[in-house]
What does this fold into?
Amino acid sequence: SIMNSTGDSDQVHQAVLRIPFKDTRHAEIACTSLSVDPEPPRSFVTKTIRADGSLVVVTFTSGQVRKLRVAINSFFDFATLVIGTIDRFDLVPDQ
Amino acid sequence: MVLIAMGFEGSANKLGVGIVRDDGQVLANPRVTFVTPPGEGFQPSETARHHQQHVLDVLADALAEAKLSPKEIDVVCYTKGPGMGAPLVSVALVARTVAQLWRKPILGVNHCIGHIEMGRLITGAVNPTVLYVSGGNTQVIAYSQRRYRIFGETLDIAVGNCLDRFARCIRLSNDPSPGYNIEQLAKQASGDKFVKLPYTVKGMDVSFSGLLSFLEERAPSLIDSGEFSQADLCYSLQETIFAMLTEMTERAMAHCGSQEVLLVGGVACNLRLQQMVGQMADERGAKLYATDHRFCIDNGAMIAQAGIEMFRCGLTTPMSDTGCTQRYRTDEVEILWRD
It folds into this structure.
């Protein structure tokens, strides 16, 4: 178990999201868009994001469960927006 | 070769997507505004949610209005800052995603410079002293040696923020905007009743927070006494703050020997402000330039216009640098497109 800087918990809480996309191209586009912005300061959450084939894998790590929830909620709003953009504005094949 | 830029703007409560051609034609500029109930301002997370809900529709509207397909866009521009964090990011996410989907370069644009470049385009002002006044910003700007230099600014809150918060104090509607409703109400004042408010110009700068506190503390009792109406207070507020802005602008114009003054930003829509600054300009033999609500108020086309200038100089933003920043000074950007 790990003691983090807040001394809050000696448990490291982790959540992993696996988001499927139509193909590798879409997954990499989503991953790129979503990896630019840092987590807010004092969020106590570390986020990693990577494309694994047509899957986007996002890992959230925190010493505090409720901080995890905040980070994941926020991420879902942004991910939903990116997914919606891809669904609606991808080029049709002949473009 | 004709260049076409798309611009995304969402740094405050306005969400706009604009399309501009490099010959100066604005091909599309749809916009939606997040309006809160009377007495309430707009918070970052609810504003971000509003932008997330509307941005894809506004983007579709822009393409439809311009009658363009994505492949005809040459560069995707977005507001990098300054502004509110989550709203900025919400819009940047869409810009990054379509730039990748459509295989186009992306450009992060300074919001203030968007206002300036759109003002110059629409009015034709060549080298004006710029008074940039909005809910988030109050600056007097003049171009010198590849920078938009800040000659004077607010030491605390923006003049538009002062107006917005006074509107909340007297529970005015925020539809279409609090400042617009203050302007209309002020017109109803007779002009005979004037509340003396703290007039605060300090050197080249101005300050509004003391004036706002003074007015917020006294407004309820002034109105309850029956001596002053809401209209009288709106009138007194406008006369005072606009005189301060006019003085700050005149000082900069005198330093620069300027013959042109350009008003930009949401507060620049105000006809009384235009009249006051216009009168000052006349007295100096200078000319006033102003646009209308389409371009004064935050919009996507202004981001596209500044973006086109940057793109023509060969600038693009690497995807890893397409973050957003709440603080972004006007003079941080090198203005390569002017001598």
Q: What stands out?
A: The mean pLDDT of chain B is 98. Residues 80 and 324 of chain B are 5 Å apart (CA to CA).
